[in-house]
Amino acid sequence: MKRLLLSGLLAWILIPSVGFSQKANTLSSREKKEGWVLLFDGSGTAGWTTVSGAPAPAGWEVKDGAISAKKGAKGGDIMSVGEYADFDLMADFNISAEGNSGIKYFFTQYEKGGNLGFEYQILDDKLAEDNKKANHLTGSFYDVMPPDESIKKMNAPGKWNTMRVVAKGKKVEHWLNGVKILEFTRTGKEYSDAVALSKFNKSMPAFGTIDKGHILLQEHGADVSFKNIKIKVL
């Protein structure tokens, strides 16, 4: 009898927990109080445009609560309508085998250099062509600074991962699956030396000295999906 009672109690405890798991592309009451805002609601492309300001093209598909760039569809990059300076940004991503993509922030038009932004790189680190440099791997500040590979834990292509960027003043942090894998400051010799060795060394004004910009989802010829894209202004 005691075993039956204990089994029943355990079942009563466990069953409701399934029902309380948070639905994708929603905010909890706590998140809303903290100031989080969804950039993607799971049902459409509202709030996203091309770099030229046109509606998000058909090459981006919204299905099963995710927004996806499809291989060969030539959807191009899409960016948030809003611009952000100090923020905490989170998103789940799923990259295909051999795939390459990224999420850019501080994305804006420079006087010289065109449209540029800091890129949180998303890559199949093992099989993608662009995997020869440490600062081109997932979680890097693309072409500028590498993540800490000794602590980085990434789920394989075809599975979901969670990225996070925290930008406050000149300090920036990159996170992957709950672990901080890169931290840098947008001033000083270490930063300027890294930019000088990157493809962004001829931009005007100096790359990264702008204070705000759009959030951009990159289409790079591979299947890539995003969901739970949310941001909090700091």
List the helices and strands and how they pair.
Elements: H1 2-19, H2 29-34, E1 36-38, E2 48-50, E3 60-63, E4 66-69, E5 78-84, E6 87-95, E7 100-110, E8 114-123, E9 161-168, E10 171-176, E11 179-185, H3 188-196, E12 213-217, E13 224-233
Antiparallel strand pairs: 1-13, 2-5, 3-4, 4-13, 5-12, 6-9, 6-13, 7-8, 7-12, 9-10, 10-11
Write a structural description:
The chain is mainly beta and 234 residues long. It has a single domain, classed as Sandwich (Jelly Rolls), CATH 2.60.120. It contains three helices and 13 strands, in the order ααβββββββββββαββ. The protein has helices spanning 2-19, 29-34, 188-196, and strands at residues 36-38, 48-50, 60-63, 66-69, 78-84, 87-95, 100-110, 114-123, 161-168, 171-176, 179-185, 213-217, 224-233. Strands 1, 3, 4, 6, 9, 10, 11 and 13 form an eight-stranded antiparallel beta sheet that branches. A five-stranded antiparallel beta sheet has the order 2-5-12-7-8, with no helix packed on it. Strand 7 (100-110) and strand 8 (114-123) form a beta hairpin. The radius of gyration is 20 Å and the shape is globular. Mean pLDDT is 92; it is low at 4-19.
Question: So how many helices?
Answer: 3
CATH-defined superfamily: Exo-inulinase, domain 1
Number of distinct beta strands? 13
Q: In percent, how helical is the residue content?
A: 10-25%
Give the class-level CATH name. Mainly Beta
Tell me the span between the first and last alpha carbons.
55 Å
The geometry reads as globular
Radius of gyration: 20 Å
Query: Main β-sheet: number of strands, strand sense, barrel status?
Result: 8 strands, antiparallel
Number of domains: 1
The helix-and-strand class reads: mainly beta
What would the CATH topology be?
Jelly Rolls
Strand content: 35-45%
| CATH A-level architecture | Sandwich
In round numbers, the mean pLDDT is: 92
